[in-house]
Amino acid sequence: MAEILTSSKPADWRSLDPENVLYLELASGRVVIELAPDFAPQHVANVKALVHEHYFDGLAIVRVQDNYVVQWADPDAEKPESARKIQHARRTLSPEFERAVDPKLPFTRLPDGDVYAPQVGFSGAFPVARDPKTGKTWLVHCYGMVGAGRDAPADSGGGTELYVVIGQAPRHLDRNVTLLGRVVQGMELLSALPRGTGAMGFYEKPEQRTPIKAMRVAADVPESDRTALEILRTDTPTFQALIESRRNRLEDWFHFQAGHIEICNVPIPVRPQKP
Amino acid sequence: MAEILTSSKPADWRSLDPENVLYLELASGRVVIELAPDFAPQHVANVKALVHEHYFDGLAIVRVQDNYVVQWADPDAEKPESARKIQHARRTLSPEFERAVDPKLPFTRLPDGDVYAPQVGFSGAFPVARDPKTGKTWLVHCYGMVGAGRDAPADSGGGTELYVVIGQAPRHLDRNVTLLGRVVQGMELLSALPRGTGAMGFYEKPEQRTPIKAMRVAADVPESDRTALEILRTDTPTFQALIESRRNRLEDWFHFQAGHIEICNVPIPVRPQKP
């Protein structure tokens, strides 16, 4: 894989669009999230609206469940008197669990099938599934995917609670939660957090939570303070070569070639943008 | 799933065999590993021999690579003068990457296929794959599986370096490494460790490592100091019901039933043994 990336061309990479990038600012550093407006336009717009009104600033990571998710939210959400107020954004939205396949949306299909979906592949940097029978496509729950937590009703989420997958892909959540983006840098700031000891990994004491300094849309941050990244395009021969290099590992260390790859094992390389 | 476990019978559970259980003792607590002598008899015997001669005591967790593995070893392994000596155990062994299918080995097959192997299921508490064409079976790299690190030659491992999967199942390692057990309690003591910032997640400074207080075979620990656990049998109707409850989640929260399950998403319940 290193050789493929070394010999890649500048056109194999794209810059992240600062209008579709969120920064989750923690004391330990910055988590960079690329948003997926093609798959969750209403949720992406609403989370950006929440960010613009500083909804998340001062809230906290309230849940870390091992091999599952990290989640941040308003710890006082259930207390009417002290819950964080929303000014212009929405608290809940209709779900965006799946959308119609559109030939204009790129789709680089993987060759080896999937346990959960008829077809899987990549649309931009996002792992997606498709069902030709229904004509629908949806984002899938791989490591690092970001979703909008909800209660039991499908329309009870809206982005005020966000979670990130930190373990084995919980694919049973596909089409049950609106996924809206993916962490492209800083996963280790989330995945190495102490696990919560309460039910479902919630922290039992307020002091165990990790405070959120701020969430920002990259475009709203002065250019000098942005994290300038490039991400490998997935609609290129270079990405096809990368997939093949992971299906059949040619390094001397490997004595057996898997000959297959599962969608959540495909890495999407990210690198600092050259000034 | 909770209902299925509540209504399970005592015979649905088995005690762990203390001769096939390792304790990895850290300052933060105890990691409990069940060994797999049916799949890696030589490696299991050798790791127990290493443990008996206190090979691991005072060594350290030297590598934590995000979404991949935690590994412990002798930090001075490459320095002949200070490397930990081996007395009676072996430093290297022939690989035990796969073994012949044996009708005496239990195999509860999963119904939904697999991206990497012709058949997958459970043998005892272990996720396994089978290939009817070759007549071989092997342990697969799910979250919590324990393997013997090695250098490039297939016979360069032997159990002096052990790793545990802490991320998306790295199935390309199947049949490339000898897996010898699985963590059944204490994963969060490994998975939440700070990630190493060196190549492949190795720590760059000695003080970043997590010291190993001791490794012990449970049978060698006074009974009062053992962690008495029971694990759900996988050759029972109760386990079949559990699988079905995870393929099609009936909880109100779920609006879409996956109808499928991937091997590494099947939980193997563990509970304290009643005195």
Task: Spell out the blueprint of helices and strands.
Two copies of one chain form a homodimer.
Chain A: H1 2-6, E1 13-15, E2 21-26, E3 29-35, H2 41-52, E4 60-65, E5 69-73, E6 99-100, E7 108-109, E8 119-123, E9 126-131, E10 136-139, E11 145-148, E12 162-165, E13 178-185, H3 187-191, E14 210-211, E15 214-217, E16 229-232, H4 237-247, E17 270-272
Structure, explained:
The structure is a homodimer of 275-residue chains. With 275 residues, the first copy, chain A, is an alpha+beta fold. Helices cover 12% and strands 27% of the residues of chain A. Chain A is built from four helices and 17 strands. In chain A, the strands form three sheets. Chain A has a nine-stranded antiparallel sheet with strand order 14-4-5-12-11-13-3-2-15. A five-stranded antiparallel sheet of chain A has the order 6-10-9-8-7, with no helix packed on it. In chain A, strands 1-16-17 form a three-stranded antiparallel sheet, with no helix packed on it. Chain A is globular. The model of chain A has no long low-confidence stretch (mean pLDDT 97). The interface between A and B is large, with 45 and 43 residues.
